[in-house]
Amino acid sequence: MRTDDLIKALDADARSKTMPLRSAWWIAAGAAAVIAAVVFLLTIGPRPDFMAAAHTMRFLSKFVFTIVLAISAFALVRALSTPGASTGRAAMGMIAAPLLVAAAVILELFAVPSADWGTRLVGTNMMICMTFIPLIGIGPLAIFLWMLRYGAPTRPVLAGAVAGLLAGGLAATFYAAHCFDDSPLFVASWYTIAIGALAALGALGGRLFVRW
Predict the structure, then answer these.
(1) How far apart are CA 170 and CA 172, in angstroms?
(2) How far apart are CA 84 and CA 78, in angstroms?
């Protein structure tokens, strides 16, 4: 069977599902958010000074990064789950979150004395961050991998990795409400590593469970 024929067959299979793929993805995203919220609230919960911190730019900038990452990854993984769908524009959107973090890091380097850079980078919650972002994100990742099986991705490893980025962005959004380290230097390092772990796990899941 030629590649074009295979893509058409997969696309026809995806369209024949009882629930349209577009609607199923939105339901899956809602379920994933609920699961992440429950795990977050039952484990660490928001920081005690959440309301006061919400008035500071560094605290709010964490959510800008994580939410933009989640939105862009959601758009791309939906496109990847549909055979023959255009992914170029959604793939370009994935650049937004890293650019925002890079800009915030540059501003931080100008605003903070160089003697404090190391302290801001290491922070005080490194291990908590590395533990709880994957913990909060593992449930959503399982849902997104299941959704990829519901669709018909022609690049399952890539789709799984993007599903991991989506789960990581969602988990990091909740974790940011707890994290006391608001410096972009901390976010750029430890948040990225924790989210990257979920992306790697998603790629493995795509290879093992989503491939055709």
Answers:
(1) 6
(2) 12
Answer yes or no: are the C-beta atoms of 157 and 101 closer than 8 Å. no
Instruction: For residue 9, give both structure tokens.
Output: 């067959």
Give the pLDDT confidence of 140-153 residue by residue, as tens digits.
999 999 999 988 88
Tell me how far CA of residue 203 lies from CA of 2, 37, 159, 188, 199, in angstroms. 26, 24, 7, 22, 6
> Is the CB of residue 93 less than 8 Å from the CB of residue 104?
no
pLDDT at 1: 47
End-to-end CA distance of the chain: 14
Q: 157 lies in which domain range?
A: 3-210
Distance, CA of 42 to CA of 172 (rounded, Å): 16
User: Which DSSP string corresponds to 9-67?
Assistant: HHHHHHHTSSS-HHHHHHHHHHHHHHHHHHHHHHHT-S-TTHHHHTTSHHHHHHHHHHH
Number of structural domains found in the chain: 1
Percent of the chain with pLDDT over 70: 91
